[in-house]
Amino acid sequence: MLNEYAGSIEDIDEIRIRIIEAIDRPIDELSIRDICARAHISKQTFYSRFSSKYDIANWFCARFEERTLNQIGRTLTWEEGVLAHFKTIAQQKEFLARTSLNGGKDRGEATKARRRRAIVETLTQCRGITLNMRFRFLIEAYLEMEVFLCGEWFRSGFTPAPEEFSSYYIGCVPGELYDLLELPKDERAIYESENEPFARFYV
Length: 203
Description:
This protein has 203 residues and is an all-alpha fold. The chain is 61% helix and 0% strand. The protein is built from twelve helices and no strands. The model is unreliable at 1-9 and 189-203 (pLDDT under 50).
């Protein structure tokens, strides 16, 4: 799975954008051959970016997590990061709906794995916190909540609106983890991407 989606924003290129634009119906109705024909690429080119058609949605979500949730405790507050995340999901709901029938059926394990790496990196490398068993337990509890609530919101048809849902969501974050990742006021900044192809998809 793309080395568990460990790539950076620099892995966004025109080929991936063309592949995303080629998905105009539910992913289970499209073969790799169909996607390649619509994107005007070869199968070899497709497989140089993705290991399967189900990797596309995971890669897509990982990229906007880099700008939103993964920035909590780095450049964004909880409120900024969570709201930006849910606004992005709502903006991309048509694409996500088309790719939601994930043949991998990993019950959010890929999401939890990449988010776990991001949170641990933020705490240890950005915040200088040594992780003990209690902190690791808090991270795992939070990840279960994150995957469950995001899935429930998706299945609800994105109701309530991102602003209201974000407030409910933040209220469920373990208080100790919230405090560990909260930014002091003098460190707060809005993250801006300089990558134009990325900006085309994540507003």
